[in-house]
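ok so i was messing around last nite and threw this chain in just to see what happens. nothing serious, just curious
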Amino acid sequence: MRPEKIEEVLGQGRLLKPGSPIHRLVTGDRASTWSSILLWGPPGSGKTTVARLLSQSKEAHFIELSAISASVAQVRDVVQEAKKLREVFDRPTILFLDEIHRFSKSQQDSLLGAVESGIITLIAATTENPSFSVIKPLISRSLVFHLDPLTQGDLMEILQKAIESKNGLDGKEFENDALEYIALISAGDARRALTLLEAAASSTDGPVSQEIAAAASENAIAYDADGDAHYDTISAFIKSVRGSDPDSAIHYLARMIAGGEDPRFIARRLMILATEDIGLADPTALQMAVACAETVERIGMPEGRIPLAQATIYLALAPKSNSAYLAINNALAHVQDGKLPAIPAPLRSTGAVGYKYPHDDPKGILKQVYADLDTQYFVPTEHGFEKTLGARLTLIREILGR
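result:
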């Protein structure tokens, strides 16, 4: 089902439209003038397809390696072969390196000389953000193109074409609901969609219904615990809790659990959120998050999903405040800028003279200088318990003369 022409590639209209850099490269023949290329996108979005279309240049020698299994020695062999082709036949070499993020820094370094000298033109594919997974010298010598996940409509078109081709499906009939279900859970991944289509077709002798497709697709949630899906999903999860949307937060929690995310990682992020985004608006939020983390550690999964859900819902519904977060960040910035007023003599551990003991006053507060500051770091909100703290703080600052 892999497209053989650029016009057959679905879902990347922005990247492959006529006149775009990729379109000009695919339809041109001057491979010797190409820059190296980094194709970044989620699984099944068409990175390998685009690379192979680029390989159709009439004048270039094309070599394909996977960083999962390739060694530095293999890369060196490719470079040596490319040198001979360049010197003897003046023929350029295109090296397609799939999953380049799997290469270590030293392995990526081994490509630099050949790329810089033009001995090889590198086309590399990665599912992870190149800024974090590819060394900067390679990025600076390459054009970076980002591929989007395929839409559900794109996947439906691919599935229909696969059925019409009858290639390996033995004329199997699919109900439209079944195809829509497969397209939905494939999350933009054409390869996954075709795999699930085959699995559903082989699981029954009759037409494939949504129920049959769902049974055949069990545990097929698109999630890479070590890749961008990991970072994107936890980011969406935290932002949903911060935004007080428990339904969205529970949805992302379910995606992480179904995808095999470490529940301890989720619990740690909830503890951070409880202090950073809720703080003093609900001081019990941190207690809830800590209790959740301890419970998950003790009981494990799958039961750990329940305290994770409980804490997620509670934190999502809790009043929000980042006042403590802002207070410590501002104070640290001032300290790092050298704003270090002398500690008042009455507060020092030795030679203290004139210290006033707060408990001697009926209110428990006495006017004295604790630090010579012109900044009020803690600015309470009107949210939750922090509103009560704000009223008390006003009284305290009046007594202290702040």
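not much to say yet. The CA atoms of residues 225 and 260 lie 7 Å apart.
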